[in-house]
UniProtKB/TrEMBL annotation:
Species of origin: Gossypium hirsutum (Upland cotton)
Ranges where the Major facilitator superfamily (MFS) profile domain occurs: 109-532
Subcellular location(s) of the protein: Membrane
Protein name per the record: Plastidic glucose transporter 4-like isoform X1
Keyword Transmembrane on entry: yes
Membrane-traversing stretches: 106-126, 146-168, 202-223, 235-257, 263-284, 346-370, 411-432, 438-466, 478-498, 504-525
Organism ancestry: Eukaryota, Viridiplantae, Streptophyta, Embryophyta, Tracheophyta
Length: 547
């Protein structure tokens, strides 16, 4: 028994010493698996004949495992320091643990989470076609300011909701927060559907806004934390796809309005259905393994991993979480920590992504495309808006296939470039007299091209990129802060767009949007890092090597 033990121990020391010279962590992982299999075979042969040495053998194997994990940590730290020395660019790093594709198990839970994304898009788009009709019923048809508040109340409340979502997700977990979020979503939808005055409508929009603000924070967070590394980009873009589907559903739901003006109430009431399904679906969905691990709920994390990836993957994924967990021993970050020197740069990049996304004009198109088409002489204005929504969905589907091949940064730069060119075309179509006979067609074509460009990068990438670039101890709060910038910018656009257009004209406003797109391209080129093909733990080690 002693000889066999020394043989195994010596074999381990030789193999472990070789690991220190390996050029790549992936090769290390493969050889570690081989070592483990050899150990298991030898352990079986010894234990089949001897029982008195089981405790001794277990101690030897435990020490061997600790040695292997120590080497792993050293290699990871070395790769992290190397990345920092080369400017912190995560492209220099190989994936810590490339996962085998397991979409079949993960997809149902991603689909349940995306009900929140559908609600997000539906509540944003439902007011587009319904605004004129509800304004007549509620007595605010001649009050542009009050119409702006009906639109923007949702957005102001969503800014509050995004902060609340981050805190709730940290305290109660991702799935429980989804269930709590269904409460304001259901009540808000009911109140807006039955509103007999503008005050009730605004209260309903406030509650719905809090609800979609929470979902905007936790849907991308939850998806990124349960998705395998090799398909995280594709699954992350599914969030934006379902937001677009929600917007399209709201625009299509408005088609009967010309025949039945009171249908706007039914449009708002339809939002109750996905809200209920979201609450029920999350009852059967697994909690984020990363959140459970950070809370010290190891057995629950293992159960969640087994549900998501299969029981055979539990040791592998837990090993990865422990390896990256060298920073998770720190307490959860407070709000003030987001502004510290350690995190401020990456947090400011996250906020800037949403600032540029909104001030590039996307929600001016989402909220007011029907009114713009009507002013351009398009007879079927609601149908034209539905076409814009369909192009948004189409572009997002294309983006899903490009996300993990082209990369996040490349798609952002191309997207904002296309949006800027489209906005310039729209501006000229309303300004140049030579284009006046074609202004209606150009308005539709320019808007469709703009939305297509948006959906290929500026739409899906920010929500996917944020959970990737933020360290685990600040992830929920930093995502919430960035989304607060999203909603504040969204609120300003929704509230003042019509007033600014009345004062300066649509062509000037579109020209300003084009200039913002140009600034966005310059910012993305200089400040955004590429994250495709990297695990969240690896990105965290690269961008925050001291965490």
């Amino acid at each position: 028994m002693q000889a066999s033990t020394h043989l195994i121990k010596g074999n381990l020391e030789v193999k472990i010493s070789k690991r220190r010279d390996l050029p790549c962590f992936r090769e290390f992982k493969e050889r570690k698996s081989t070592l483990t299999r050899n150990l298991c075979i030898r352990r079986g042969s010894i234990c089949s004949g001897l029982t008195s040495g089981a405790v001794s053998m277990g101690a030897e194997l435990a020490r061997a495992r600790d040695n292997v994990e120590t080497v792993a940590r050293s290699l990871i730290k070395f790769r992290s320091v190397k990345a920092q020395a080369s400017g912190g660019d995560v492209e220099d790093l190989a994936p810590i643990n490339p996962h085998e594709t397991s979409t079949g198990t993960v997809l149902p839970f991603v689909g349940v989470a995306c009900l929140g994304a559908i609600l997000f898009g539906y509540h944003l788009g439902v007011v587009n076609g319904a605004l004129d009709y509800l304004s007549k019923d509620l007595g605010i048809a001649q009050n542009a300011v009050m119409q702006g508040w009906v639109v923007s109340t949702l957005l102001a409340a969503a800014a509050v909701g995004s902060f609340t979502g981050g805190a709730l997700a940290d305290k109660f977990g991702r799935t429980r927060t989804f269930q709590l979020d269904a409460i304001p979503l259901i009540i808000g939808a009911v109140l807006t559907a039955i509103a007999q005055n503008v005050q009730t409508m605004i209260i309903g929009r406030l509650l719905a806004g809090i609800g979609i603000g929470i979902t905007s924070a936790i849907v991308p967070l939850y998806i990124s934390e349960i998705s395998p590394t090799d398909i995280r980009g594709a699954l992350g873009s599914v969030n934006q796809l379902f937001i677009c589907i929600g917007i399209l559903a709201a625009l299509v739901a408005g088609l009967p309005l010309s025949r039945s003006p009171v249908w706007w109430r039914g449009m708002f009431g339809l939002a109750v259905i996905p809200s209920i399904l979201l609450a029920l679906g999350m009852t059967y969905s697994p909690e984020s393994p990363r959140w459970l691990f950070q809370q010290g709920k190891i057995s629950e994390a293992e159960k969640s991993i087994g549900t998501l990836y299969g029981k055979e993957r539990v040791p592998e994924v837990m090993y990865e979480l422990r390896t990256a967990g060298q920073g998770s021993t720190e307490p959860e970050a407070g709000w003030i920590d987001l502004f510290s020197k350690r995190y401020w740069k990456v947090v400011s990049v996250g906020a800037a992504l949403f600032f540029f996304q909104q001030f590039a004009g996307i929600n001016a198109v989402v909220y007011y495309s029907t009114a713009v088409f009507r002013s351009a002489g398009i007879a079927s204005d609601v149908a034209a808006s539905a076409l814009v929504g369909a192009s948004n969905v189409f572009g997002t589907v294309i983006a899903s296939s490009l996300m993990d091949r082209q990369g996040r940064k490349s798609l952002l730069i191309r997207s904002f470039s296309g949006m800027g060119a489209s906005m310039l075309l729209l501006s000229l179509s309303f300004t140049w007299k030579v284009l006046a006979p074609y202004s209606g067609i150009l308005a539709v074509v320019g808007t469709v091209l703009y939305v297509l460009s948006f959906s290929l990068g500026a739409g899906p990438v920010p929500a996917l990129l944020l959970p990737e670039i933020f360290a685990s101890r600040i992830r929920a709060k930093a995502v919430a802060l960035s989304l607060c910038m999203h909603w504040i910018s969204n609120f300003v656009i929704g509230l003042y767009f019509l007033s600014v257009v009345d004062r300066f004209g649509i062509s000037v406003v579109y020209l300003v949007f084009a200039a913002v797109c140009l600034l966005a391209v310059l910012f993305m080129a200089g400040n955004v890092v590429e994250t495709k093909g990297r695990s969240l733990e690896e990105i965290e080690l690269a961008l925050n090597p001291t965490t």
